[in-house]
Specification:
Distance between the termini of chain B: 50 Å
Oligomer: heterodimer
Radius of gyration of chain B: 26 Å
CATH architecture of the largest domain in chain B: Sandwich
Strand order of the largest sheet of chain B: 1-2-5
Largest interface: A-B, 42 and 43 residues
Largest sheet of chain B: 3 strands, antiparallel
Number of helices of chain B: 2
Distance between the termini of chain A: 18 Å
Largest sheet of chain A: none
CATH class of the largest domain in chain B: Mainly Beta
Number of helices of chain A: 14
Order of helices and strands of chain B: HHEEEEEE
Amino acid sequence: MDQRARQTGNIDFDGWRFAAGLGRGFAGALIFALPMFMTMEMWELGFSMDRGRLLVLLIVNIPLLILLSNEVGFEATYTWGDALRDAAIAYAIGIVSSATILLAVGVLQFDQPFIEIVGKIAVQTVPASIGALLARSQLNGDSDEEGEDDEDPVQKGPRDYAREMFLMAIGALFLGLNVAPTEEMILLSYKMTPSHVLAVLIMSLIVMHGFVYAVSFKGGHEIGEDVAAWHIVMRFTLPGYVIALLVSAYALWTFEQFGDSSPWPVLATVIVLGLPCSIGAAAARLIL
Amino acid sequence: MSDNPKTARNRSHSVEWVVGLTSAVLVVALIASVAYQAASYSSLPPRLTVTRIEAPTADHQVRFEIRNDADRTAASVLVHGEARRPDGGAEISETTVDYVPGRSRTTGALIFSTDVTGADVTIRPAGYMDP
């Protein structure tokens, strides 16, 4: 953080650069959230969703964006104040891009009740704003002509364990949110017997460990070669999987996928969505 | 936060081990419970029963609860209700329940066009699809 502050601390306001940052934010919102903009279940959630859960989602998004902004903000973020500002801008980009796309595809109509219009935009805003913030790291191929620091904070910055886990949660959201609202999640858990669920669980852990291990070779975790494999399992793979499951459960709860099922189908659904979530979590360093 | 990345990375904090151990316990418990489910799972077809749960409402709704006592899920469950009035008249009403998961229950209502208080209402599951 200090290093970035030094490099970009005293630049004058550059309108073009700011506009480019906004453009990138919109691009990121589209890349991340377009699958959700075009998912029927997400439109229905706009009016059917429990308003309490929607409120929780909208509020949880604020600290999430601020923390994320501090990590990978689309402007070179160097203070918490800037992180706050970028989070607010990303949230706004999320609202504007959701409203624009939903209007363009005819999901939003002017004769719909106000509460429905607000709900449809609100539920899509959260993934879109995360996308807007992630844009910097995803689309930073042109960073040299922007005159920004070339150093990717995600790959090289010093970070502690908690930040590692936070990035895993974002990665889990990244893949998980795309499929969490779909009916297929419930349907799959009903089609699968417990043996299938067990297979998915084991597969998630294996694939996850593969990613964690592979990414550590890219210099991500910078785990020394002398560290035993089971150390990595204990410190990254297993906590990462628990985070993936928590994200999965939260997404399913938010999108009201549990219905009035008994605990077993709920658990099965969480494990099913846990597969994309765990891959997203493990690959967080590659995709973020 | 601002310490050297190399040393920060290679020194595993006790926090990491506490989190790691807790996670390991959780994951092992999860695997064990899924394995237990897998071992006790029976592939018998869904066993559906429908019961009335409330007296008819003013707009002739008859609320029901549908239970599935088997492990397999039933999809598109057709619930068929027939109200036979003492005067000999009868009315049929039907609805479809999207899913009744295994070992679960869900509720719904049949709506008749005439007053069914005093009528003999029978509600039964009339068919389902495998999901």
